[in-house]
Write a structure and sequence with these properties.
Elements (H helix, E strand, L loop, with lengths): L1 H8 L9 E2 L6 E3 L2 E3 L4 E2 L3 H5 L2 H4 L18 H6 L13 H18 E5 L6 E2 L5 E2 L4 E5 L6
Antiparallel strand pairs: 1-4, 2-3, 5-8, 6-7
Length: 144
């Protein structure tokens, strides 16, 4: 739940991968016509922060929205942190496994403290924090 909500709020690829309408008659998507050679993109950031999909708290970090039985079909289809379709991220399965392992190990072994008042990001193909200072200390329960 926490990893999916983090990927929704802070998608690594925020601008979406460009696709070109092939030669021929063009394409119509949801009543909008796009002529051949038009570059289209589905920006994950925009979709992941859309109140019409995620509700009025779309910009809030809420891992409980991922609780079993709470996601709508539209939300499931709109969750695209690794893109979608035949050109989506080939490393998705490995990335999800590594995220689960690293996050669970880090949270079990350490306590974290964010030392920034606000989190500013640099937009581009990859969305990166401009500055993110985090304090860490070993957890009292760690036996590593």
């Amino acid at each position: 739940m926490v990893i999916n909500e983090t990927l929704r709020i802070h998608s690594t690829s925020s601008i979406g991968l460009p696709r070109v309408v092939p030669p021929g008659p063009g394409v119509t998507i949801r009543s909008h016509y796009f002529p051949p050679q038009t570059v289209l993109s589905v920006p994950a950031y925009t979709i992941h922060h859309s109140p019409s999909i995620w509700g009025p708290d779309a910009d809030s970090f809420n891992p409980l929205r991922w609780a079993p039985g709470t996601l709508t079909d539209r939300q499931k289809a709109a969750f695209i942190p690794f893109s979608v379709g035949p050109r989506a991220c080939v490393g998705r399965n490995v990335a999800e496994m590594e995220l689960a392992l690293i996050v669970s190990t880090a949270v079990h072994g350490f306590e974290f403290e964010l030392r920034e008042e606000a989190w500013e990001t640099k937009e581009g193909f990859l969305r990166k924090p401009v500055r993110c200072r985090v304090g860490t200390r070993k957890s009292a329960t760690w036996r590593g």
